[in-house]
From TrEMBL:
<dbReference type="GO" id="GO:0006417">
    <property type="term" value="P:regulation of translation"/>
</dbReference>
<dbReference type="InterPro" id="IPR036085">
    <property type="entry name" value="PAZ_dom_sf"/>
</dbReference>
<dbReference type="GO" id="GO:0051607">
    <property type="term" value="P:defense response to virus"/>
</dbReference>
<feature type="compositionally biased region" description="Low complexity">
    <location>
        <begin position="160"/>
        <end position="173"/>
    </location>
</feature>
<dbReference type="Pfam" id="PF02170">
    <property type="entry name" value="PAZ"/>
</dbReference>
<dbReference type="InterPro" id="IPR032474">
    <property type="entry name" value="Argonaute_N"/>
</dbReference>
<dbReference type="InterPro" id="IPR003100">
    <property type="entry name" value="PAZ_dom"/>
</dbReference>
<dbReference type="Pfam" id="PF02171">
    <property type="entry name" value="Piwi"/>
</dbReference>
<dbReference type="InterPro" id="IPR024357">
    <property type="entry name" value="Argonaut_Gly-rich"/>
</dbReference>
<dbReference type="InterPro" id="IPR032473">
    <property type="entry name" value="Argonaute_Mid_dom"/>
</dbReference>
<dbReference type="InterPro" id="IPR012337">
    <property type="entry name" value="RNaseH-like_sf"/>
</dbReference>
<keyword id="KW-0943">RNA-mediated gene silencing</keyword>
<feature type="compositionally biased region" description="Basic and acidic residues">
    <location>
        <begin position="175"/>
        <end position="185"/>
    </location>
</feature>
<dbReference type="InterPro" id="IPR045246">
    <property type="entry name" value="Piwi_ago-like"/>
</dbReference>
<keyword id="KW-0810">Translation regulation</keyword>
<dbReference type="Pfam" id="PF16488">
    <property type="entry name" value="ArgoL2"/>
</dbReference>
<protein>
    <submittedName>
        <fullName>Protein argonaute 1</fullName>
    </submittedName>
</protein>
Amino acid sequence: MIWVWKRHPPQQLRATENGGPVHISAKWKGEVVIRERFLRYALSDCGECFGAVFCADIIMVRKKRTGLPSADERSQSQQETSGGGCGRGQPHPAERSVPPQQQHGGGGCQWGRGLAPRGGRGGYGSGGRGIPSSAGPSRPPPPELHQAIQVPHQQPRVIPSQPTPSEESSTVSHQFEKMDIHDGADPSEAIQPSSKSMRFPLRPGKGSTGTRCIVKANHFFAELPDKDLHQYDVTITPEVTSRGVNRAVIEQLVKLYRETHLGKRLPAYDGRKSLYTAGPLPFLTKEFRIPLIDEDDGSGGQRGEREFKVVIKLAARADLHHLGLFLQGTVLLADPFILLIWEEGSHWVRGWRVGAVSIKVFVPTQMGLSLNIDMSSNAFIEPLPVIDFVTQLLNRDVTSRILSDSDRVKIKKALRGVKVEVTHRENVRRRYRIFGLTSQATRELTFPVDERGTMKSVVEYFYETYGFVIRHSQWPCLQVGNQQRPNYLPMEVCRIIEGQRYSKRLSDDQIAALLKVTCQRPHEREQDIMQTVHHNAYHDDPYAKEFGIKISENLASVEARILPAPWLKYHDTGREKDCLPQVGQWNMVNKKMVNGGVVNNWICINFSRKVHDSVACRFCHELAQMCHISGMAFNPEPVFPPVTGRSDQVERVLKTQYHDAMTKLQPQKKELDLLIVILPDKNGSLYGDLKRICETDLGIISQCCLTRNVFEMQKRYLANVSLKINVKVGGRNTVLVDAISRRIPLVTDRPTIIFGADVTHPQPGEDSRPSIAAVVASQDWPEITKYAGLVCAQAHRQELIQDLYKTWQDPVRGTMTGGMIQELLISFRRATGQKPQRIIFYRDGVSEGQFYQVLLYELDAIRKACASLEPNYQPPVTFVVVQKRHHTRLFANNHRNRHSVDTSGNILPGTVVDSKICHPTEFDFYLCSHAGVKGTSRPAHYHVLWDENYFTADGLQSLTNNLCYTYARCTRSVSIVPPAYYAHLAAFRARFYMEPESSDPGSISSGAAAGIGGMGGAGPRRTRVSCANAAVRPLPALKENIKRVMFYC
């Protein structure tokens, strides 16, 4: 028997089944099965209560009720409520239980030596937080989440909605009632609760800290249409994957039938399955036959014609009044597809220019629906003969030599998906799409020419059929068409078609050239945006008129605040013991690192042929002196003088020099602290190979320096390198004065750990390489400047971090638990002597469409990891998403006012916006925490998805802004909060640990092996099937001494 408590009579309870409501009323007879491993709350119809609270893996409601609860039930409910046994402060014992399989060795805790289990929430008291009175905080506590019992059939969990003040106060006076819950539900009968029933935290008011100002945003207010919007499902047969073809079909349909069958409506189509109209069409469902003439292929012959069957069926009608209330912040959006109309139907507001596109998306904001317009640049493939393209790609003349395997892989990646046209047929210009290269040279390729299987070589065929002599027969052919029936085309007969966007990875030189051409100062970008608005002339656009859309032609004026920079603490032996940054930057002059690291034994290896030994020696001496001046204990003399090595023998050189150094140090019981490496300016894979060998094989901290910087030997550069070396060997550069004086709310009052997490995905075109997840966590408190990092490989383009929490079976000890969160919590305990009593989790790289999915999965993993360490250990969590890939830009209200812009013309660092262009109801804000260097600054967007620490707007905004001044690699504030930045760096570093890029990614046997390069104690490497069912090669493990420091800096 498991008790289920609810806040209102049963007629107000609502569960969900396949996304729809299942009402349970007092007169309802029958049974409803709810199967959920971590179901907490079901929304109520009245909208004023929490609904029911569930805590079980598989629970079944088999309650055949014909009236109100019995007297026994009511008395039991009153007894439990008044006795404090199951109130908000002290949940029922069934809720607080932790399954045996999640305890280490069947009981106790997994924290390590000297830490005994403690009762209560997070180990700081058994009473919980209790129910606040009406005079309590303006934003009451959300419902608590606790560990759920694991079963073989795992399901996603529903996380509770956060209550409003009226909800919280109203629940105190209600009596709890109970319902009978029985185990043994059939999983096949499960009702899956929808994530739509979950609410993100409401905005806890707007911030007030800082100097108020006005900024302009590239948002344009859009008036809601006064017409009814209808959504229709579209089915096109035969089905095609190209949106362009689908749009052409619907465009032809509108051209043929708009005045008749469509009732003169002009529909908006998303290119896939949805079509929208301003008012109803004169039918509920209708079938059309649409002829479509193929594109001109340049052959000069008659173009083919295809017929498509199009079925249009009414799907839904949008409630625009409800949308208006949502934008005013008075209700939650019940019809999410309304916003989809504007996002998917916005293809009619597009504008192009050379090498750039204006991005336009409708977004819901506090000022209503707004059109976000921005300029975005892209690289396009130069229309060249394929031979010339390959020559440029490989950066050498290879027409007279056979291609190597690495050359083939590089060419294949660059040309896959590219459209070409043939040039050997005079006026015929047939077009094809490349999908691969042949493994054989052109001169070796043959194919059947008749039904008898007569074979002919490609060289002979082209000479006999077209009179074309193939000169580069040693090169492979392009494979075009499809893989079932490939066609072979020699490279020299193909030319790349103009106007194709290049989506592959750009080289460093290409990126530099692109930035140089497209970089725009703020006032230039603002002018381009305004020109786009005037050019598009929305007031004359047929779609705008059809749907009744009116768009402002003025940039939105937004109230903003400039948060003050924090004071930074440096060592007391320096001339300047603390520092107040000016306009987001400062320097190390007259300052010493607050905690200098120790480097007693170091060596230098020079892989650059341009740098002579004397230059290398002088550079090392200058660097050692700078480290000493900055506050490190740095031995000026290396173990032996700098040595020169060949870059094509990096592994042999590194291992030889490491062995020689250790042979000299080990008799003295010393270790090698640092390796300084001088690299060529263009070093290819040398940097990655070096980091992989040092960090996963030899266990050496390394610092790489490019040749040009060695020759220039600038003081600023040496100072920055010394900052990186210090944190790599375990030191601290600076700390916040407010941190060490315990003046940061909700951080320094009790042990707090701050996480950063990110997932980096392979470049487009790399179809089988895994994604890399990285999680970092602070390891010092209250300073919060040192971060340990863990990395793992997971399925291709999988955004959810799979190894936050994991279990496996040990033959001797049974069910074991581990994962990245658990390891970092243990590491924090060992470093500080205390367990975290608060968790702040900054998650990078999540789009709005993934918010629910990421929160449901990753918050659950955090909960499980905490509970696996100690029974009832559930520290409150704040989960914040950090977004940089958005198109909101902020401009100074007056570009000529020197007091409102920095030296680059951008808004001042610390500028925060939490009104007007932000979400109508949820807790989010834009923060430009850095000073611009070049181009237009992009503010970071922070969106709070879960908040059990009850941050105020000022509290979270100030914390985030202040943390941006603690970034270890430079003396500038950075654009995103450092934990998220470090996670990105760690994930990027881990890419070097994988197999070299020169090998063509091959298929591996099914099943995914997840490898974590993390802290010890995570359990053995194991093979598991990821949710994407893709094979993943595990990363090599980091050496123990590497794990403890910020190796990724």
